[in-house]
Design brief:
By secondary structure, the chain is α/β, with parallel strands linked by helices. The chain is built from 20 helices and 30 strands. A 5-stranded parallel beta sheet has the order 4-3-5-6-7, sandwiched between helices. It has a 5-stranded mixed beta sheet with strand order 12-13-14-15-16. Helix 1 packs across helix 2. The longest helix has 22 residues. The termini are far apart.
C-alpha cells in the first residue's frame, strides 16, 4: 500500500526526515482545515514563497483541497516583483518559509490591500513579530485539527466538490518581454499530462527525485508534485541551495531534471579538478573518456559494439565512469531530462558517454510542460524529440511551432486579450518558437519566432541560436547577439568568472575581480578563439553562414536579474538591454576599438556601487562556406 511508503523527505541540520504518504495526507488535511478556519474559501489565492520544503508542497495541495488556488512565487524575488504577483493574483493569504520572506511581505502589505493573513513556517527570528495577521504554520495546523473535529464531513465535502476542470494552480511567466502573466492550469491539465509522462517513461513508485528548482517554475510542479502523486514516488528537498550537490550524492535520485547550465557547471567543475590531478590520473582519464566518446553512447542506445570495446568500457566503468558518477550523485539515474536552453554537444555527449540517459524535452508553462520528448534510442543533441502522447504539433507558414494537448492552459488570469493572442478558439497554442521537423519526425527549435530576423544582405539572423553556440564554451556565461536589419552580427559576452578565473590562475594572471579579468588582453584572446570556432561552424550551415560574428566586446559586469537585465529564470531581457546599453551597441556598429563606460551594479547584500571600465571592441575572423577566411 502507498500509505506506508515514503512520500517526501527534507534535510534539516544535516539529518534527513521522511514523511509517508499517510503522514503527508494528515499534514495536508490539518493545513487545509486550518486555512478554512481562518476564512480561506473556494477560489481564494494562497501565495507561497520559499525554498523547496515539504510543508510548502503540502500547502499547495491544501489550498487545492479547499477549492482554492496556490500561487507559488520565486523565492529570490525582490519585494516589488513579489508585490506585482500578489496584487495581480488577488492573494488573500500568503505562506512564507522564513523571516526573510515575511519581511518582504510586510514591506509590500500596504500596497496589496487584499492580503489579509501571513503564515510562516520557520520560527527563527519571528518572536518579536506580534501583528495579529501573522500566524505560525504550526498554529494554523493545530487550529485546523480542532476545526476538523468540530466540523465532521467538512473535508470530504470539499474534496468531493472539486472537478478536474477547476483551476489547480496559477504560475507566473518570467516576464521576458513585459510584465509576467498568470498562467491558469487545471487539475486535468496537470494530472493527465503527468500520467502521460509517467506512462511514457515507465516511472513507478520506487523512483527517487530531488526537488531543488524553484517551486514557482512549472517544471517543478510537474516533476516534483504532479508526477510524484500520480506515480507515488518519493521526492527529497535539499537542505539549502548551497548543499544541492552534496544532497544529490546522498539521495542518489533515479529521476532527475536540470537545465543545461547545471550540467554545464558540473562538467566545468570536473574539468577544473582534472586539471589539478596528477599526470598519471590525467592520462588515464583522457584515455577512457576518449573510449567513452567512441562507444559509450552506442552502448547506452543498445547499438552493436565489439566485444573488445565493451570489455575496455567495463574497465573504464570500474576505474573512471563509475567513481565519477558516484561523486556526482548520478549513479542511479534512469532518466535525466534537460530543457529550457540548448545544451552543448560536448556536454550532452559527455554525460551520455558515461551511460547516463540524459534526454532533451521541449515544453512551456502553457503546456503544463510536456510538448516533445526524446524516445530512448532516438536521442540527438540537435533536436527536442517527438510529440508527447496526446500532443499534436503543426508548423505555421512563418515557421512558428503550434501545439494542442491535454495540458493546454485554461487562460491568462485577468488578461483575455493575451489569452486570445496565444490560444486559438479550437485549442491550438502559439509557442512563439520557430522550428521544423526533420526527416525522422524530430522537432528542431531554431529560435524565438519574433527574434528571427535578417541582416541587410538578406542572411537569416537567429540570435538565440548564436548565443547558445557561444555559451557551449565553458568560458562563456551569457551572450547577447545583435544583427537584425544591420550589416553584420555583433555580440556582448559575459565570461564565466569561475572557469576563466581558474584558467587565469594557472597562467599566473593576477586580477582583482570580474571587471579587471574581463578586460585582460589574454582573456580577449581566449574568447576570440571561441568566437572564431563558432564562425567556422556557422560557415558550414547554408542557412546561417551569413550570420557569422564580426565584432564583439566583453561586458564590464555580469548581467543580473537584480539589475533587470535577466529574468529570474536567467533569460535575457533583450529590449531592456538594448535600451540600457544603446551606447555600446552603437559602438559595435562603428569603427571604434574602445569605449569608456560607467555602470551602477547591485551587490548580493543589496548595496549599489559604481564601476568604470574602458571596453575593448574586437573583430573576429569570418569564413566563407568553403572554410576560407574572409575579410
Amino acid at each position: 500500500m502507498r500509505g506506508s511508503r515514503p512520500a517526501i523527505r527534507e534535510k534539516d541540520f544535516g539529518i534527513w526526515q521522511a514523511w509517508t504518504w499517510a503522514e503527508s495526507a494528515k499534514e495536508i488535511r490539518a493545513l487545509a482545515c486550518g486555512l478554512a478556519a481562518y476564512g480561506f474559501e473556494t477560489g481564494d489565492r494562497l501565495a507561497i514563497i520559499g525554498d523547496n520544503r515539504p510543508h510548502l508542497y503540502w500547502a499547495m495541495v491544501a489550498a487545492q483541497f479547499d477549492g482554492g488556488v496556490p500561487v507559488p512565487v520565486y523565492q529570490d524575488s525582490v519585494a516589488e516583483e513579489m508585490q506585482f504577483v500578489l496584487e495581480h493574483a488577488d492573494a488573500r493569504f500568503a505562506l512564507a518559509e522564513d523571516q526573510e520572506q515575511v519581511d518582504k511581505l510586510l514591506e509590500i502589505k500596504d500596497r496589496c490591500p487584499k492580503l489579509e493573513l501571513i503564515i510562516y513556517k520557520d520560527s527563527r527570528g519571528m518572536r518579536a513579530y506580534d501583528q495579529p495577521f501573522i500566524h505560525s504554520l504550526e498554529d494554523v495546523q493545530e487550529k485546523g485539527r480542532q476545526f476538523d473535529a468540530d466540523h465532521p464531513g467538512f473535508a470530504e465535502e470539499k474534496i468531493n466538490a472539486g472537478k478536474g476542470s477547476d483551476i489547480a494552480i496559477m504560475l507566473y511567466t518570467s516576464g521576458t518581454t513585459g510584465q509576467p502573466k498568470g498562467v491558469m492550469l487545471s487539475h486535468d491539465n496537470l494530472i493527465i499530462t503527468a500520467r502521460n509522462g509517467v506512462n511514457q517513461e515507465g516511472l513507478h513508485e520506487d523512483e527517487e527525485a530531488l526537488a531543488y528548482l524553484p517551486m514557482a517554475w512549472v517544471g517543478d510542479n510537474l516533476f516534483s508534485l504532479s508526477q510524484a502523486y500520480v506515480a507515488g514516488f518519493c521526492v527529497s528537498c535539499p537542505e539549502s541551495s548551497e548543499t544541492v550537490l552534496t544532497d544529490l550524492r546522498e539521495i542518489g535520485p533515479t529521476y532527475f531534471f536540470a537545465p543545461p547550465r547545471i550540467f554545464e557547471n558540473i562538467l566545468t567543475t570536473v574539468t577544473i579538478r582534472m586539471e589539478d590531478a596528477a599526470p598519471f590520473k590525467q592520462k588515464t582519464f583522457k584515455y577512457f573518456m576518449e573510449l567513452a566518446g567512441r562507444v559509450g553512447t552506442r552502448i547506452l542506445d543498445g547499438e552493436e559494439v565489439s566485444l573488445f570495446d565493451r570489455l575496455r568500457y567495463m574497465v573504464g566503468n570500474i576505474l573512471i565512469y563509475g567513481p565519477l558518477k558516484n561523486v556526482l550523485g548520478f549513479s542511479r539515474f534512469r532518466i535525466a531530462y534537460t530543457a529550457g536552453e540548448a545544451i552543448g554537444p560536448e556536454i550532452f555527449d559527455f554525460y551520455r558517454s558515461l551511460g547516463i540517459n540524459i534526454k532533451q524535452l521541449y515544453g512551456s508553462t502553457e503546456a503544463s510542460v510536456l510538448i516533445t520528448t526524446q524516445p530512448n534510442g532516438e536521442v540527438r543533441v540537435d533536436t527536442v524529440g517527438r510529440p508527447c502522447p496526446d500532443v499534436d504539433i503543426r508548423i505555421e507558414d512563418n515557421g512558428e511551432v503550434m501545439f494542442k494537448s491535454p495540458g493546454v492552459f485554461v487562460g491568462y488570469y485577468k488578461n483575455d486579450e493575451a489569452t486570445a493572442e496565444t490560444k486559438t478558439p479550437d485549442g491550438w497554442v502559439h509557442t512563439g518558437d520557430a522550428g521544423f521537423f526533420d526527416a525522422d519526425g524530430h522537432l528542431k527549435i531554431i529560435d524565438r519566432a519574433k527574434d528571427v530576423g535578417k541582416l541587410n544582405d538578406g542572411s537569416m539572423f537567429a540570435p538565440k541560436y548564436l548565443e547558445n553556440k557561444l555559451k557551449f564554451f565553458p568560458f562563456v556565461k551569457e551572450v547577447v547577439a545583435f544583427g537584425n536589419e544591420n550589416d553584420y552580427v555583433a555580440v556582448f559576452i559575459n565570461i564565466d568568472l569561475e572557469a576563466v578565473g581558474n584558467w587565469a590562475e594557472r597562467r599566473n594572471l593576477a586580477y582583482s575581480g570580474y571587471t579587471d579579468l574581463a578586460g585582460r588582453n589574454e582573456v580577449y584572446d581566449l574568447i576570440q578563439e571561441c568566437v572564431e570556432r563558432v564562425n567556422a561552424d556557422l560557415a558550414t550551415d547554408e542557412h546561417l553562414s551569413g550570420s557569422q560574428i564580426k565584432r564583439y566586446l566583453i561586458l564590464h559586469k555580469e548581467l543580473d536579474a537584480d539589475d533587470g537585465e535577466l529574468t529570474r529564470t536567467r533569460k535575457v531581457r533583450r529590449n531592456f538591454i538594448a535600451e540600457r546599453y544603446e551606447e555600446l551597441i552603437d559602438a559595435l556598429y562603428s569603427d571604434k576599438t574602445h569605449i569608456p563606460v560607467e555602470a551602477e551594479v547591485t551587490f548580493e547584500d543589496g548595496r549599489k556601487g559604481l564601476i568604470k571600465a574602458d571596453l575593448e571592441i574586437r573583430e573576429a575572423v569570418r569564413y566563407d562556406p568553403a572554410m576560407k577566411e574572409t575579410a
